[in-house]
Amino acid sequence: MTGDPTHDVSAVGFLVIDVLCRYAETLPPPGGATFVDEATMTVAGTAGATAVDCAILGLKTQIAARVGRDVMGEFLIAQLQRYGVETGLIQVDDEVQTSTSLLPIRPDGSRAAFFVPGTSARFLPTEAEIRRILDARIVHLGGTGLLDAFDGAASEALLRRAKALGRTTVFDLILANPETVPKVLPLLEHIDYVVPSIHEAAAMAGTSAPADVARWFKERGVGTAILTLEGDGVYVDPADGAPFHLPSHRIDVVDTTGCGDSFTAGVIVGLARGWDIRKVCRFANTVAAHVALGLGSQGRLASFDATLQAMESWPLRAP
Questions:
Q1: What's 265's domain CATH number?
Q2: Three-state DSSP class for 5?
């Protein structure tokens, strides 16, 4: 592959439709109903939501993933295109339904999920599709742990080829546990920026202190470890320089769904613009805050300019 890449970012991996409502603390009684304030459907997933948010924030974005030949898959493709994400690398499965989550959101913004793994477990890009994936300055792999066909050697090969071409690689996983470790370990030496939540990262590292968790990833080859700490902001152990912590914004949280995916999008946008790592993570914090202000993975995220302005003006939580 020669010449400059055509795209700013390729988002690869987990794409799911989220059906959400707020607020719901308990399930309705058998045969009954619980009245809620709001319900919606959104593009979600560690590849899907990140791709949409990158597009909203001005990047030329493509996604490689898999959906079913069903109404959920049609919705996802239509919404991705609506936001300006290129969908030519989305595979359509004739046998398995689109990955789907049903999410009752609690009053504190947290959620549990009813989840159909669906087509994401069967995603496996062809050689021709991989060449197109690599036609981007940044390659983001999101969803290891739910990409059964792609996890392991196929994911490692993609990241290795991306690094050989000089691409920047970004990585996030989902539903991590100790069993995820063997799938992730071969990938780490090919990852420039790993961006998991502290809970998932700690489940892999076997320790809970952010500094120790970040060190675990870096000792295994990661360039920069960025750990999201939910309401406590972010801990960053960069490739160069001393580790640091940034607080989150002081906001009234509506829904935390997609906040991690949107944070990753903020990181990608900052990297694409050539910012230093501290500004990258400040911006990513503000992106995630916009998503937390609304229901679903896009929340109240509107534009790059509005987000940049909020980064400088919105109050921060006390350290």
A1: 3.40.1190.20
A2: coil
